[in-house]
Amino acid sequence: MEMLRKELETVLEQNQILQNEPMDRHTTFRVGGPADLYLLPTEEQLKNVMNILTDHRIHMTVIGNGSNLLVGDKGIRGAVIEIGNAMAEITAEEDLVIAKAGALLSRTAQTAYQHGLSGLEFAAGIPGSVGGAVVMNAGAYGGEMKDVVEYVKVLGRDGAVLKLTNEEMEFSYRNSCAAIREYIVLEAALRLKKSDPQTILQRMEELKGQRRMKQPLEYPSAGSTFKRPEGYYAGKLIMDAGLSGFSAGSAQVSEKHCGFVINRGGAAASDVLSVIRHVQEVVKEKYGVDLQTEVRMLGDF
Q: How many CA atoms does the CB half-sphere of 45 hold within 13 Å?
């Protein structure tokens, strides 16, 4: 590890290299054990960092804002690379908003509003980063990233930088080719429409109000825990199965919205996983429906 750290220090500053870093600091669930290495590179440093890790045969896990992750209590072996504040620039040109992958989606939607650009209002309350949102084709309230993406710049594990069109991204429900091929998103250009800023703001405030009313925003969670099964709504299936409020330790099916598993304070990842698995088993048994998690599970449980 000492030799690896010395090599990384030829590329990164010391404060960009964290060892045994608790992942509960980096996930919206507020759970997760330590990452062996936690790295915070800029875009310019990223390729060199990956080359060093590859040379040392260190497993790499790339994350954004940690808003869609459940990290195991035993943590993550190898290196976690955060695409975050070091890659968060946002610019606007005519009807395009160009956001680096580490930019928060909420901040990107705010920038669009400030430039009188409509189309990203659905994303204003999604807590993730642009990179994570593109990878999983995040969506809410009838909008999805695929509706606004013009192109995406990605870095392949082989070090090649590609510029992919909307079509080449192969967007589908909560998926894209970036997820399948393990591309690292560097930036996304979003094509929006000129509109009255006041109308845009009004829509954003309206959606914010709906979220506050319907979602358990007062507790740590990873948003919608389950994907929407075809022909059903996950939250309704869970509620109809009598699982509202079901808990294990301090993890619980939210009584406010059954599609959310929440951390009521001090939950372990194993508690969250127990709730998820129990919900899947009961819903399968009662309705014959396989609930797939929208949450990405990482590390050792």
A: 20
